[in-house]
Write a structure and sequence with these properties.
With 228 residues, this protein is α/β, with parallel strands linked by helices. It has a domain at 1-77 and 195-222: P-loop containing nucleotide triphosphate hydrolases (Rossmann fold, 3-Layer(aba) Sandwich), CATH 3.40.50.300. It contains seven helices and ten strands. Helix 3 (96-105) packs parallel to helix 5 (140-152) and helix 4 crosses helix 5. It is globular and about 45 Å long. The relative contact order is 0.20. The model has no long low-confidence stretch (mean pLDDT 95). The structure holds adenosine-5'-diphosphate (ADP) (2 copies). Residues 11, 13, 15, 17, 35, 37-43 line the site of one adenosine-5'-diphosphate (ADP).
Amino acid sequence: MIEMKDVWKTYPNGVMAVNGLTVYIQKGEFVYVVGPSGAGKSTFIKMMYREERPTRGDILINSQNLRLMKERHVPYLRRDIGVVFQDFKLLPSMTVFENVAFAMEVIEAGRDDIRKRVMNVLDIVRLKNKARFMPHELSGGEQQRVAIARAIVNSPAVLIADEPTGNLDPDTSWEIMHILEEINERGTTVVMATHNRSIVNNMRKRVIAIEGGRISRDEVRGAYGYES
Ligand code: ADP
Ligand code: ADP
């Protein structure tokens, strides 16, 4: 499913963010990525959805080698990988429906397909009744649920979440976690970078800890393992 073999990333300014990282994530897994600030978590995750290219080493997603992937094929990768960010990144001038539909329009899905599937994913994130709302009319948790709907609308094999609860209060964070867990139970692989110790320690999953751009710990039902 996701395979990284001796992956290195040095940024143009010389910062060595990832230093020889090897990892294998199977279909259907739920993985937390933890570690101190500056450890390389975001770089690791960005390389998975081809936002950053590795300097060296191979990254295979569903047997496609991202290092060799041509620029024009990247939009198609977005069908296999959905991404959710800490700051939601919704398009402010589009309704909830349009924000989610947009991800299907980009891959040229038909209009009837789009309507059915968008309402279906809005149902999964429990926002069917707010399809016509604008993002600014929603709470933070609701905005994140729209972002999740957008990320899964094309039925990706993998959902990547970079600090998805970073801007949310504890109750809202748990709502988001239950939705991510439900999506995982339907078969989607979930990879989530987080600083949320309470979530990691209470919803036990595989934990990959990164320090100095390397994996320092990889546990099947791991704990957060840091003080804050
Ligand atoms: P984390 O997500 O664990 O905080 P990052 O992957 O963001 O870690 O950063 C790892 C290291 O790479 C840090 O030293 C950071 O300053 C550096 N870094 C991150 N992004 C860039 C970039 N675009 N250009 C240069 N250095 C970067
Ligand atoms: P750019 O390269 O110009 O940033 P992108 O294609 O990366 O354009 O993103 C366009 C919009 O779609 C952004 O708001 C981004 O957050 C969102 N987006 C991109 N890829 C995904 C994805 N796989 N899942 C969910 N949203 C995505």
